[in-house]
Design goal:
The protein is α+β, with helices and mostly antiparallel strands. The chain has two domains: 114 residues, Immunoglobulin-like (Sandwich); 160 residues, Aminopeptidase (3-Layer(aba) Sandwich). The strands form three sheets. Strands 1-2-8-7 form a four-stranded antiparallel beta sheet. A four-stranded antiparallel beta sheet has the order 3-4-6-5, with helices on one face. Strand 7 and strand 8 form a beta hairpin. The radius of gyration is 29 Å and the shape is globular. The N and C termini lie far apart (86 Å).
Length: 350
């Protein structure tokens, strides 16, 4: 009997300490990635976070209850994380709801469609609880493109003429033209071309948000480099007659592959250019390279290494696997067509 009691007491203590450890499990980080497409909130911890979600109306709020997490760590991590430019979240606050439960309350600027899911550890991240806030009416990239005003040339102030030294010139030379007359002169108008159809190019800046991509020796991140390149390339394309460029993302947030594809299809893009700035195993690598889909798999060690790395991007960036993909299968089918592959290779060699 005494041995049995001791065994029961030891089991009780072990369960007590396990429960205490779970109750004090801190939240490592809270990250918020706002964008017009959606806003993502990520809570990172050592263990999967048990949770429950509640949508409250009048006013619009989302209540997220977190079980067995440390309140102080949550309070510290959410401080000053919400930006005034966030299109969906007005405020974020935390409180002790009941023993062992921390309640997060999101005050919203508008009605949203929430999605919540867990991600297992990958790369530098631990367990993640991800809450995505989507608009009730998804943003149509084509309408957003049409609603965007055309860029106007900035008016530059006319240079102020400085003092001119009087000189005696031979009568055979022409008299100087007054500055006022020079300013009135207008360049000859360029001949107008009839535009029957704009060539649309989708520029896809790789990575973003939770997925930083490659890291440079000086601390640069691929997601920032690719976005800078995409913006500059868009300016060049838009300056070409009968051409326009569309960015799949124009901020620091992650888009799943299916979302990038869907955006390109919605604007009926003629060309999809995915931009990356990859690190490599050899530091002396220089220049640029273009990859197209191969029917026989990776055709080189570099292509095999790059394909494996980019295929893991959705695991790092965080994708809700419960959402069905409407466009990816069709796009892969299109890409596998021989004509599409040949056109891609011709463009790459141009």
């Amino acid at each position: 009997m005494r041995v049995a009691l001791l065994g029961f007491f030891a089991l009780f203590l072990s369960q007590f300490f396990v429960a205490a450890a779970r109750a004090s499990d801190p939240v490592r980080a809270v990250r918020i990635w706002p964008s017009q497409d959606y806003t993502r909130i990520t809570l990172e911890s050592r263990q999967p976070i048990r949770h429950s979600l509640l949508v409250v109306k009048n006013p619009e709020r989302i209540v997220l209850d977190l079980q067995d997490v440390e309140y102080a760590s949550v309070q510290q991590e959410i401080a000053d994380k919400v930006l005034t430019s966030d299109p969906y979240i007005a405020n974020l606050r935390a409180g002790r709801y009941m023993p062992g439960v921390v309640r997060l309350v999101l005050d919203l600027k508008q009605e949203v469609k929430p999605q919540i899911f867990l991600l297992k550890p990958v790369g530098e991240y631990g367990h993640r609880l991800v809450l995505d806030l989507y608009p009730v009416e998804p943003i149509d990239p084509l309408m957003a493109l049409l609603d965007k005003p055309e860029p106007r040339a900035e008016a530059r102030p006319a240079p102020t003429p400085g003092p001119v030294e009087a000189k005696t010139e031979p009568s055979t030379k022409q008299s100087p033209v007054p500055v006022a007359e020079l300013l009135k002169a207008t360049p000859a108008e360029k001949p107008r071309t009839d535009v029957t159809r704009l060539v649309t190019i989708a520029l896809d800046a790789g990575h973003g948000g939770e997925d930083p991509g490659a890291r440079g020796r000086g601390g640069s991140r691929e997601k920032h480099v690719t976005l800078t390149i995409a913006r500059k390339l868009k300016t060049i394309v838009d300056a070409e007659p009968n051409m326009r460029a569309v960015l799949t993302r124009d901020g620091d947030y992650y888009l799943a592959l299916r979302t990038r594809v869907e955006k390109a299809r919605r604007v009926k893009a003629d060309l999809f250019v995915s931009i990356h700035a990859d690190a490599f195993v050899r530091p002396h690598a220089r220049g640029s390279s273009v990859f197209a889909l191969s029917e026989r798999g990776a055709t080189s060690a570099a292509a095999r290494w790059l394909a494996k790395r980019e295929n893991e991007a959705d695991l790092i960036g965080g994708v809700n696997l419960d959402v069905k993909d409407r466009y990816l299968a069709q796009t892969l089918l299109d890409l596998s067509q021989t004509a599409t592959i040949q056109d891609s290779l011709k463009l790459a060699r141009a």
